[in-house]
Amino acid sequence: MAEHLQASVGSLQSSLQILDSSISTLDAGISDFPRLCKVLQTTRHFELLPEPTLREAQQSLLDEITPSIAHLLSLASNHVEKLSRREQGLRAKCELQEGRMYSNESRQPSRLRSAYGDRQGASGNAAKAAELRRLVQKKERLQYAVERLELQSKQRERQLRKSMAFH
């Protein structure tokens, strides 16, 4: 019987050795398990959405952006119109100044002639020339004012049309 017991003890010891080697093999195999879980974990980079949800998101984005775009367009349009009016005003002012220069140049020889001409009529002619110059300058100022008022009127008409279009 001692022999049977010794065989059982030997068999048990060999089983324990096999179990120890299995545990160490399993331990070596699962020691890297947390890293493997992280590496093998699936990540969803893209999600598929139903088409109605996508359309709803697009419409909400459009509803949110449209007023801002309209506001920015109106600001840009107003600025362009302002610059256009300024350009027209500067052109009118330039034309007015050119007209004044031209009228001064055309009158200059007559002033020279009157200075060398008859001394008795010179004072009367000088007064008439001064009056004429004053009237011409007044006429040019009034023309410029009329042009400016016409431009303002056109601008107000455009603004009225725009406001009517938005309502």
TrEMBL record:
Residues 132-159 form a coiled coil. It comes from the Eukaryota. Pfam families: DASH_Spc19. Residues 100-124 are annotated as: Disordered. Keywords: Centromere, Chromosome, Coiled coil, Cytoplasm, Cytoskeleton, Kinetochore, Nucleus. GO terms for cellular component: DASH complex; spindle microtubule. InterPro entries: DASH_Spc19. GO terms for biological process: attachment of spindle microtubules to kinetochore. Its main location: nucleus. It is found in: Chromosome, Centromere, Kinetochore; Cytoplasm, Cytoskeleton, Spindle; Nucleus. Belongs to the DASH complex SPC19 family. PANTHER family: DASH COMPLEX SUBUNIT SPC19. This is DASH complex subunit SPC19. It comes from Aspergillus carbonarius (strain ITEM 5010).
